[in-house]
Amino acid sequence: MDEALKENILGALEQVIDPEIGIDIVNLGLVYGIDMDEEGKATITMTLTAMGCPLASTIVDQVKYALSDIPEIKDVDVNIVWNPPWTKDRMSRYAKIALGIPD
Hints:
The protein is an alpha+beta fold. The chain has one domain (3-84): 2-Layer Sandwich (GMP Synthetase, Chain A, domain 3), CATH 3.30.300.130. Helix content is 29%, strand content 17%. The chain is built from three helices and three strands. A hairpin with a 4-residue loop joins strand 1 (31-36) and strand 2. The radius of gyration is 13 Å and the shape is globular.
């Protein structure tokens, strides 16, 4: 996958807002990896801020919808992982400022 497509995917994923926190999943540091095979199937490896998040299926649906406008992507698989565990250290400077967390 070329860098331009990866940036396009990350840009689309920035439209997916964690409903409990109000910040997008990219700036929260929830997206761990992006892969794509030759057939156009994108695999997004990500985590959630809390295990047992009641909105997990909503976030997965939003990820799939956000990527639906990218012509190179024919199918999306969202792989939720818990290892490594998410911490506030994964958040971008923007997210920390928005939430009032010292850098």
